[in-house]
Amino acid sequence: HWYFVTCNHQSWADIPAIQYVLNSRIPLLKFFLKKELIWVPFLGIAWWALDFPFMHRHSKEQIAKRPELKGKDVAATQAACEKFRYTPVTVFNFMEGTRFTPSKHQHQNSPYTYLLKPRAGGTAFVLQAMGEIIHTMLDVTIVYPDGKAGFWDYLCGRIRRIVIDVRTREIPPRFLGMDYENDREMRKDFQQWISEIWADKDARIEALKLS
């Protein structure tokens, strides 16, 4: 089975913790990575060897200056996903795009208490490219009850407890293979769906912190 997985992003410890929980239960997670991360010593070449897709997203400002870049993101996503059609994989994406910090939260003026604003575009591109085979989303929520800790704390065993909540969501058929870039109404509909998921996740974090 093919899956799309998303999660709130608190720490670099999120990735090994989620890998541990999902290992052998679903196919190997494939992360969409920024193109620049291929230069990370050791890890970059490992990600490349494991067929992790490297993406180069273009901002609205870049596209305004160079209109020929429009659509390149979708084409790159489709090319990266093409090889995933023949062997079940799990495509993983942190929709927030970056780790949560109070300063980022304030800078964004995020409407959520514990989350940054989700970036729906990357997820939409995956569903556009792989809508024929990906129908299921695993909605993962991660909480550090004793306070957020860094990756080094994780390696040193100083993180005593991590709560990982996994919920299965069937992706509405109208979003599978959608034209996110060119269909304005579909784009608004999809963004609203993601916003509802994020509002539910925010409330779930509150409940998990109190449990």
Polypeptide structure, described:
The protein has a five-stranded mixed β-sheet, sandwiched between helices. Strand 3, helix 2 and strand 4 form a beta-alpha-beta unit. The protein is built from eight helices and seven strands; from the N terminus they run E-H-E-E-H-E-H-H-E-H-H-E-H-E-H. By secondary structure, the protein is α/β, with parallel strands linked by helices. It has one domain.
Number of distinct beta strands: 7
Unreliable residue stretches = none
Structural class by SSE content: alpha/beta
User: What value does the average pLDDT take?
Assistant: 86
Number of helices: 8
- Report strand %: 15-25%
Distance between the termini: 32 Å
How are the strands of the largest sheet arranged? 2-5-1-6-7
**What does the main sheet amount to?**
5 strands, mixed
What is the C-alpha radius of gyration, as a whole number of Å? 17 Å
Shape: globular
- Total domains, how many? 1
Q: Write the element-wise H/E pattern from the N-terminal end onward.
A: EHEEHEHHEHHEHEH
How helical, in percent, are the residues? 25-40%
What would a concise description of this structure say?
The protein is of the alpha/beta class and 211 residues long. The chain has helices spanning 14-22, 43-49, 60-65, 72-82, 102-108, 120-130, 151-155, 184-210, and strands at residues 3-7, 29-31, 33-34, 54-55, 90-93, 136-143, 163-170.
